[in-house]
């Protein structure tokens, strides 16, 4: 049985919930689902007694925010500044299936991204023994976009802060800090139009659908269990990165 919260059927709070859906749901026999499960099996080493609150030897920092806010730029800068390692999700091993799952119903699409979080998270755990890890998106994005999509299409209200829907999965490694890049919508949309990158359905919706965009931002802000600091991304790159450096100082002095 899929673990969900009051109608939000595409928000998963455990690896077991994702695997149960993929193995027993209506799409279980789809060839791409079988390939996805095989990739997971090959790239997720078993480890018992996982504690997502375990202390790391080095900091684990995640950048979040809407498309065009400057995540990629700041991930690169902070990785160089800390001499760390960058991890992205979905991981490379899953990318050949991404386009297929982006066209699937919400619950299946988010199961794909959720599984990517767990594979990437396990890789993060191994790196933290020797390096700081900086990640471009993680569970915040998976959950926030899923919630916003269901608010838009399912006649659901965005739950208030403190709702169980927003709790961080207990079996997924926790960032020491999440930096949420905020940007005025007119500036963000202008930046996005100038980028020579993707233009997914989600990115298009952010541009023209106010409810979807505001629900996504609201969900980002409500996710609980990890510290989040908002960064004003409307300034020039050097000023934004100064804010990033200030935000991480406490992690570097611990």
Using brief descriptors, characterize the structure shown.
254 residues, alpha/beta, five-stranded parallel β-sheet, 10 helices, 5 strands, globular, disordered N terminus
Written account of the structure:
The structure is a single chain. With 254 residues, the chain is of the alpha/beta class. The chain is globular. Strands 2-3-1-4-5 form a five-stranded parallel β-sheet, with helices on both faces. The protein has helices spanning 15-24, 31-43, 71-82, 98-102, 106-127, 139-154, 185-194, 201-208, 210-222, 237-253; strands at 60-65, 85-88, 133-136, 177-182, 228-232. Residues 1-5 have low confidence and may be disordered.
User: What is the N-to-C succession of helices and strands?
Assistant: HHEHEHHEHEHHHEH
Measured distance between first and last alpha carbons: 42 Å
Structural class: alpha/beta
Low-confidence stretches: 1-5
Quaternary status: single chain
For the CA atoms, what is the radius of gyration? 18 Å
- The general outline is globular
Approximate helicity band: 40-55%
Reported for the largest beta sheet, the result is: 5 strands, parallel
Q: Quick check: average pLDDT?
A: 87
Q: In which order are the strands of the major sheet placed?
A: 2-3-1-4-5
Contiguous helical run count:
10
Total DSSP E strands = 5
Strand content: 5-15%
